[in-house]
Amino acid sequence: MKQGESFEARPDPVLGARLRAGLDPGDGARFVQSLLARLAAPPRPVEVLAQWARPGFAAALLLASALGYWMTRHSLEPAGAGPAAEVAAADLTLDRDALMVAAFDDTQ
Amino acid sequence: MRIHSESDIELVRRARAGDRDAFGTLALRHAGTVRRLTRAVLQHPEDAEDAAQDGFVNAWLSLHRFDDRQAFGPWLIRIALNAARDLRRRRRVRRTEALPPGLAGEGRDPEAQAGDALSRERVARSLGALPERQRAALVLFEVEGYSHAEIAALLGIPEGTARSDLFHGRRRLRELLGEEGSQP
After folding, report:
1. Quick check: A55 and B43 in contact, CB under 8 A?
2. Is the domain covering B8-90 a CATH 1.10.1740.10 domain?
3. Is the pLDDT of residue A51 over 70?
4. ipTM above 0.90, yes or no
5. How far apart are CA B80 and CA B86, in angstroms?
6. Domain residue ranges in chain B
7. Per-residue pLDDT, B178
8. In the CATH hierarchy, which fold is given to the domain comprising B110-182?
9. How far is B123 from chain A (nearest CA, A)?
10. Which residues 10-69 on chain A approach chain B with CB closer than 8 angstroms?
11. CA B154, B159, B162 angle in degrees (round to 5)?
């Protein structure tokens, strides 16, 4: 089957005319007049938001990615890293030794 | 307003520099296409007018992003289609109504106006029975004269899908108009 046969490659003038009439929006000059009045007025909050929506979303996404990276990096860091962690580990070792001594004393 | 003396691109350049009259000329030139399209998509006259206005306002605010090497019409249509979709999302609760007759043709013979209005209502009702994408594709092809490839690009679909939408949309619309036409 040829494409032209199956899909009617040219516009149908009768259908086009009926559609044009059916969708006729009326006075174009009045529409433009009200559009220009809207452009002259200060922008509505929704328009300002719409203008900022895309860059705002991109910035939020970037921030969320950076925060996610930072949190992942810190949560995966080994416990022994850093001087504070070393002190905590030493305290834990001491406590464990003390506990073992206490337990030994109890058994006697 | 000078409508035919300047090209779209010249008007865009002037509008970009803040000349609202130049944008008004552009708007007058393209208002028919945009308003017919938003009507076809939204099937609600007031929403369609709001969406068309939103589309032009968004275009005005985005003129600095317009690439002068492109054609202005398709760029504007894409913005208007997005505005129509945004507006529909915002007003999803509103019931879809058939387009009312009688916005055009003021000052003519009342009988002829009534006949026209009836015909318009029929077309609007029949068009409303088609899926949104088919409606948009039909208007772009049959009324605005865009090619299959251009329609595909405007609607963000493959060219084959645009052809198929047109084929099925046309067939269904003819059936519906035929059925309606045969009613008393």
Report:
1. no
2. yes
3. no
4. no
5. 10
6. 8-90, 110-182
7. 84
8. Arc Repressor Mutant, subunit A (1.10.10)
9. 5
10. 11-12, 15-16, 18-29, 31-32, 34-36, 38-40, 43, 47, 50-51
11. 70
